[in-house]
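Continuing from yesterday's entry. The apo prediction looked reasonable, so today I'm repeating it with calcium ion included to see how the binding region is handled. Same sequence as before; SMILES copied from the compound registry.
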Amino acid sequence: MKKFSKLTSIILLAIISLTSCTKEDTESNIEETTGDVAIKTITDNLKSKMSQITQPDDLSLDRNMIQDFGFTFIYPINLTYNNDVKVSINSSSELLNIINGLTETSYIKSIDYPFNIDDQNTSRTNTSIDNEAELQSSIDSHDSDGDGTPNYADDDDDNDTVADQDEDVNHDGDVTNDDTDNDGVTNINDTDDDGDGVATANEDYDGDGDVAGGDADNDGTPDYLDTDSDNDGMEDAQDNDADGDGNIDDDENNDSDDDNDSDSNN
Ligand SMILES: [Ca+2]
Ligand SMILES: [Ca+2]
Ligand SMILES: [Ca+2]
Ligand SMILES: [Ca+2]
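Holo prediction written out below.
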């Protein structure tokens, strides 16, 4: 009898937890389908990015907007919180204040259309966004590496095998202000971060599959940021140019005949 009542209790508990799961799932599905998904994607993403930056300011906000979404707002814009409170925003600094104050329970649910943006994808300034479909289409089309995943959902924007968060080599929490080789292309968009002629994705000299983790000469600078990874006094590009013809072996600028024997890489 005691055994029977214990079994009954377990079954009852299982039924109760199953029922509550179903209710929660239904509620979260309802929440996900209400409001303006595009502006919530933008503001949630900016909240996440700004909270990682040591000293976020209006410039870092604009840079992160351009990196992830390909545009900056032309102000004013009017946003509405999930509790229906409206706020008019006249500058990136004002937007930053709003973004910093967002929480899981206090978020932006919509933006008033139309509004204007400076669109980096099309290089058109003052582009009008007239509805949510246009906003969604604009952010979905911003795909730096062309791999089909828009930047805001891509954790390796330039597809160089180094994750976006690991492109923050100055460790200020901002992934959009690092340019190791000073060529004007930030590391998060640069497929050759140290500009040594060897693509970042090909700088995994220890072959462990982790480009960011390798440091062949143990000088504290990882190989993909070190123009002379083995510290032999010869730049990596020369190390990787066996026949010295100026074409780097087995790289994106492929030397199809590594040893210049007129026989393709044999
Ligand atoms: Ca992509
Ligand atoms: Ca990357
Ligand atoms: Ca660069
Ligand atoms: Ca390189």
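Comparison notes:
- Residues 143-145, 147, 149, 151, 154, 157 surround calcium ion (ligand 1) (CB under 6 Å).
- The first strand starts at residue 71 and ends at 74.
Will overlay with the apo model tomorrow.
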